Amino acid sequence: MAADAPSRLAVLAGRGDLPLQVAAREADSFVVTFQGVDTDAHPDYEARFEKLGGLFKELHKQGVKRVCFAGGLRRPALNPLRFDATMMRLAPRLIAAMKGGDDHILRIVVEVFEDAGFTVVGAHEICPEILATEGLIAGEAPTEQALRDMDRAHAILTALSPVDVGQGCVVANGLCYGIETIQGTDAMLSFIAQNTLSRQGVLMKRAKVGQELRVDMPAIGPETLHGAHSAGLAGVVVQAGQVMIVDPAETCALAKELGLFIYGEAR
């Protein structure tokens, strides 16, 4: 007997190419964009953060059973005057969660969607080939100094993990030049670019310990590499199996073109 076909997937689209990759994997994907979010995805439905009840109703109407958050989404500015009944009920829980770190609020978001009858799946479950592998992924092997900077970056992110701050940092010659906060990786790299490091130092991206990876797995892509190059870094280090490389072929080709390495760290 043939295996049952997977249930219909809704792609909740944010910024970048990842929503397009995920939606292309399943022909009947239902693509949802959010008002005010800049995305390249072509929506089947445009939702409002203040009207989750309307979104849930539409997803059920479309036969959706699985939802995948794909692409970058910043914390929305919510207008209580626009809340529907469902959002009014959820608001105290969500607003309280927004006072914490990203992982905390995203765990609550997952619970909200699961309580509404949906299964939340990660983009890496739909497109497993985007997961970073162990060892040298692109470019030339990191130098001894770069390896020492990796160790330092690993120690910094491990120390910060319990306080749910960020997924990335930049270290050069043992010094920390930047830590990713709510502004994101691109903003951090833009700041560091004001003091270009002349092809030294590394950007490390890794998951926080115990992070909810279905909705907030760290990711790098071409934009990350352009930022790392502008900042004068030597390469990008990612956690193997827990960081996504969006557009892997394009990203790896760009790394070689820019003279950067991409390295997958196993620990």
From TrEMBL:
Boundaries of every LpxI C-terminal domain copy: 134-263
Annotated protein name in UniProt: Phosphatidate cytidylyltransferase
Every LpxI N-terminal domain range: 8-129
Residues annotated as coiled-coil are: none
